[in-house]
Amino acid sequence: MVSDIRMLRDFGFVTVVDLTVSLAGVMVVLPAVLVLAERRGLLGAGARAGRPRLRLPRRRGRVERAPAA
Predict the structure, then answer these.
(1) Alpha helix (H) residue ranges in 1-69
(2) pTM of the model
(3) Of 11, 26, 43, 60, which shows the fewest CB atoms inside 10 Å?
């Protein structure tokens, strides 16, 4: 082992497990959510087919930009 500190020894294993779970989520969950969102008309393609679009709340008040330096 490179380190006597257990937390540092286990860091590589925890990182591999974390990245594997993240990759599985992206490969399995994200496509399913996109298909469901498209079927419900929450994406642009569904909205063009006559279905309602996801409506975001409008900002109130005016947003002013800082003067150029």
Answers:
(1) 6-24, 30-39, 44-48
(2) 0.45
(3) 60
